[in-house]
Each structure stands twice: as C-alpha cells, then as structure tokens.
Amino acid sequence: MIEIERISRAFGGLQAVREVSFTVAEGSITGLIGPNGAGKSTLFGIVAGALPPDSGRIRLQGEDITGLPTHELFHKGLVRTFQIPHEFSRMTVRENLMIVPARLAGESLLRSWLQWWKVVREDRAILRQADEVLEFLEISHLRDELAGNLSGGQKKLLDLGRTMMTDAKAVLLDEPGAGVNRTLLGKLAEAIERLNRERGYTFCVIEHDMDLIARLCDPVMVMANGELIAQGDMATLRENPQVREAYLGTGTSGGMGAA
Ligand SMILES: Nc1ncnc2c1ncn2[C@@H]1O[C@H](COP(=O)(O)OP(=O)(O)OP(=O)(O)O)[C@@H](O)[C@H]1O
Ligand SMILES: [Mg+2]
C-alpha cells in the first residue's frame, strides 16, 4: 500500500535517514522500531508529506506521492498522528473530533478556530460521526471534558479518534503507547486491532514498547543510525544479533526484552 523506495534525508552533516526501502502491505499493521535517534520519526515526516526527502520516492497504492503536502495526502487517505499529541486544549474532546474535517479541507489553523463553532452548530452529520468515534473508543464519558484535562493516554486515544474522523485508509502512528498506562494501553491496542480488522485500516506503528509491537505488528521493520537493518516478525527479530547490538549499543530506554 505504501512503498518507501530508497529514501534519504540529512540535517546538516547528520544523515538521519539513509537509503531506506520497505513496503507497508495493505491490511497490515507494520511495526517500525529502533533506538532513539534511529530516524523513525523523520521517515514518518517524509511519508506524511511534512518533510521533503533528499532522494527516494514514496508511493501510495502505486501512485507517486513524493513531496505532496500533508493535506493532499489526507485526501488520499494517508494520515499521521504525532509522537507528542497536539490537541486543542481549550476545546472539548468532542469539538476536537469535530474540527478535523474542516482542518482536512486544508483550512488554516486560524480559520478552523474561527469556524469550529459553525461546524458544531451546522453539521449534524459530523456531530454524529464524532459521537460514534467516542463510542468506538469507549470514551463517551469524556465527551464534554476539555482536551487539556485529559491524561496522556486519553490524549493518545483522542489522537487515534481524530484519524477516524477522516477517510483514512493508511495511518502512521508515532509512539501511540508512550506515556500511556497499562489499562489504557490495552484499550488503545484493541482499538488499533479493531480498526484494522473491522474497518480495513492499514497501520504503520513506531513504538518503543516491544510488548505492544509484538502484540500488534507483523512484520516489524528495524532502523538504526538512519538505516533499515532488519525486518521480520518480532520473535525472530528478538534473536537477531544485529538488532540486539543496535539496542544494547545505545543504552536506549526501550530494551528488546528477554530472548
Ligand atoms: N528538524 C531536525 N533538525 C535537525 N536534526 C534533526 C531534525 N529532526 C531530527 N533530527 C535528528 O535526526 C536524527 C533522527 O531523529 P528522529 O526523530 O527521526 O529519530 P527517532 O528514531 O524518531 O527517535 P526517537 O525514538 O527518539 O523518537 C536524530 O539524530 C535527530 O536529532
Ligand atoms: Mg521519534
């Protein structure tokens, strides 16, 4: 579904991503792991149209989408969530969902701010959709809460919910599990699985929580120092000496777990 072909990107003298190629197959939940600074988020930024690559191509269902801006990719069904959630803290949870379609129309932040009340008032369909999303994620009770008051984990759920307000078919999740407690993590994983199974979403997931990756993802891609060093299922990767070396070598917080 998403073909990443020999993507490279440098920041000054630092080669953040080097000649990375892999495919995210339609209907898969593909993992992307690697120590801090491996280049994972940079690669996501490139795929999501937020950052131009120095070289290489990105294809979405066969179509070359390299360099297309984020809002055009939204319309093609490719969306990304961020490592750090960026909700509108002074709007309610439901309003945060309802504003998504307006923002997708390519409207500026200011414009969507000025118009959200209009959306809320006028578009019953969007209201209904937002309520369905809240129900799906089992956070209907948080509907009228200010988004700024949510816990880190609840914000991650809201972030996932926002992708459900789009016609997303391919979703890039950057560390959905970061800072999420065990209970919410289970819920988040379940929501991702259900979206994949029941609604045909394809996912590519960056995550340091190896248990979450092992539960959700197959295959898993491993990056280190900007390069793709291995791919396969999690059980096999845990035994891969090069992968173990990459993790041990940096003393990163996310270990590979017991072999
Ligand atoms: N905008 C930028 N300007 C300069 N350097 C950057 C920029 N973005 C990323 N880098 C550098 O590129 C490298 C790759 O960063 P990136 O954020 O892609 O890593 P990551 O794999 O997502 O790491 P983490 O797991 O910590 O989120 C790092 O050395 C980082 O400091
Ligand atoms: Mg990152």
Automatic annotation (TrEMBL):
<dbReference type="Pfam" id="PF00005">
    <property type="entry name" value="ABC_tran"/>
</dbReference>
<protein>
    <submittedName>
        <fullName>ABC transporter ATP-binding protein</fullName>
    </submittedName>
</protein>
<dbReference type="Pfam" id="PF12399">
    <property type="entry name" value="BCA_ABC_TP_C"/>
</dbReference>
<keyword id="KW-0813">Transport</keyword>
<dbReference type="InterPro" id="IPR003593">
    <property type="entry name" value="AAA+_ATPase"/>
</dbReference>
<keyword id="KW-0547">Nucleotide-binding</keyword>
<dbReference type="GO" id="GO:0005524">
    <property type="term" value="F:ATP binding"/>
</dbReference>
<keyword id="KW-0067">ATP-binding</keyword>
<feature type="domain" description="ABC transporter">
    <location>
        <begin position="2"/>
        <end position="250"/>
    </location>
</feature>
<dbReference type="InterPro" id="IPR032823">
    <property type="entry name" value="BCA_ABC_TP_C"/>
</dbReference>
<dbReference type="InterPro" id="IPR027417">
    <property type="entry name" value="P-loop_NTPase"/>
</dbReference>
<dbReference type="InterPro" id="IPR017871">
    <property type="entry name" value="ABC_transporter-like_CS"/>
</dbReference>
<dbReference type="InterPro" id="IPR051120">
    <property type="entry name" value="ABC_AA/LPS_Transport"/>
</dbReference>
<dbReference type="InterPro" id="IPR003439">
    <property type="entry name" value="ABC_transporter-like_ATP-bd"/>
</dbReference>
